[in-house]
Amino acid sequence: SSETQFHSEERELKEKQQERDKDDVDLEALVNDMASLSSYESIYATCGTQHSDSAPLLHSTDGSGLHVAALHSPAHKLRRSQPMHIHAVRRLQEEELQVRPASLPAIPNPFPELCSPSGSPVLSPGSLPQPSEPHIIKVFSEDGVGKVVEVPADMTARDVCQFLVYKNHCLDDNCWSLVEHHSLLGLERCLEDHELVVPVQACMSPESKFLFRKNYAKYEFFRNPLNFFPEQMLAWCQETNGSIPQSQLLQNFLNSSSCPEIQGFLYMKETGRKSWKKLYMFLRRSGLYCSTKGMSKEPRHLQLLSDLEDSNIFTVTMGRKMHNAPTDYQFCIKPGKGRTELKELKMLCAEDEQSRTCWMTAFRLLKFGILLYQNYKSPHQRKTAISNFTTPVRSVSENSLVAMDFSGRTGRVIDNPVEAQSAAMEEGHTWRKRSQRMNVLGRPSPLHPSLLSSVIHRTQLWFHGRIMREESHRMIMQQGQVDGLFLLRDSQSNPKAFVLTLCHHQKIKHFQILPFEEDGQVFFSLDDGSTKFTDLIHLVEFYQLNRGVLPCKLKHPCTMVAL
Questions:
Q1: Which residues of 195-225 are buried (b: 16+ CB within 10 A; e: fewer)?
Q2: Domain 135-214 carries which CATH code?
Q3: In this structure, which of 173, 492, 505, 533 has its CB flanked by the most CB atoms within 10 Å?
Q4: CATH of the domain spanning 456-557
Q5: What is the rounded average pLDDT of the residues 85-105?
Q6: Per-residue model confidence (pLDDT) at position 170
Q7: Alpha carbons 390 and 387: distance in angstroms, whole number
Q8: pLDDT band at residue 125, thresholds of 50, 70 and 90?
Q9: Domain boundaries, the chain
Q10: How many angstroms separate the Cα of 211 from the Cα of each of 144, 214, 423, 562?
């Protein structure tokens, strides 16, 4: 019996030792886990509120020095696979992401000397340039056809024009413009080349749109400033009773330290009424002012009408019909930020076209200053550089068209206008003799020039077919009333004749081109038959070189492009 009792006691001791070893393994794993997470004390601090019952673990120890007293209670028994709290896991992941920026490998910076002093010589993914989010704009041509263009947020009006010129194979003469057109308000203006397109579109109403159009007068005031600023409207000319040099005139506008001033009478529409009031106004860098007492310049008599910084100037296209304007030369000042209602517009009206052009040009110069001059010089400075949007095209400017004589061994330029006219007439007679040759059937050849003379001009950009006189006026005014801007159209009074519409000194004039028949051949002439041409193309080319009976040479064709 004593031996049996000894074996049973030994068996009980072995079972207790096994249970103790099992608990020791669990405690060692728990201690290792706690040691590995000792750097994240803040995590366990947040979890401590939920495990506050486990605080009395440290009460008694066994022989190994490990705290085991409270672990034997079934309510606080820990298992090896005890999960961590979900918030703790998330915070661990966030701290790991802060230590390791991204899953992409760090790229060594090949130019560490270009980094800022606080910058790291390693390019992290966050420091790499991120592509801007594209925006959608729709641009319309004069015939109403639109093209959808995807542009980045930093694309300027000039960039959009260059893109459309390249896509539509237009002549890149730096005269194309993006026009902001408000159909409901009857307003439009040409965007400056440096303006960003996306912010402008954000301030437009759903009925407004962008137009792609020529504007030859965009920078014409840099070439001929005296034509844009009459002396009677310049304050310094009135004060000194003298004229100002052309270079000094532009310098006063571009120099921010100078104080140029435009003055004169303007009609202003009264708010909420259809009546107009004639006031004496002053345009300065600080804004547009009107005098409340005659022509007085005293500060107590000046009233601020508009600030230049937060406003844009527009041409009114329907002033007579919508606003009962006293003249046809309306313009308006519209707030630049946000969508504007009709009552917030400053409707103004000038006496003539020259006065309106002076006010609008001075507004642009005083607002943008040197930026306009940089826009004007930018295309000339990059002529030698290859652009992504431009293609090599032949220039048709006045300087590239000269009369030549190829009768000798080498060609020479004809400088004498009389000799150039006689050479043109002689060449015309030679062409007429060639046109009289017949084929063997006794009829003109299919490629005979006499058959083409009546239709070949319809392929030219300056010919606009059967448009009315008012429509030709509108097109000339929209593309800038500069000297030499012209178009040809069918005559409304004579079905066999044509009309040349020409702009000179901001006035639009019309010249009838009559047909003359001689020896079975039809010729066209502007001067009652003194100078005759076989077709309209020869006529236009001649008057591009010679003024003749016209007030000026033909310089800029009035064109319309289809997108």
A1: bbbbebbebeeeebbbbbbbbbbbbbbbeeb
A2: 3.10.20.90
A3: 533
A4: 3.30.505.10
A5: 54
A6: 84
A7: 5
A8: low
A9: 135-214, 220-237+247-380, 456-557
A10: 9, 10, 43, 11
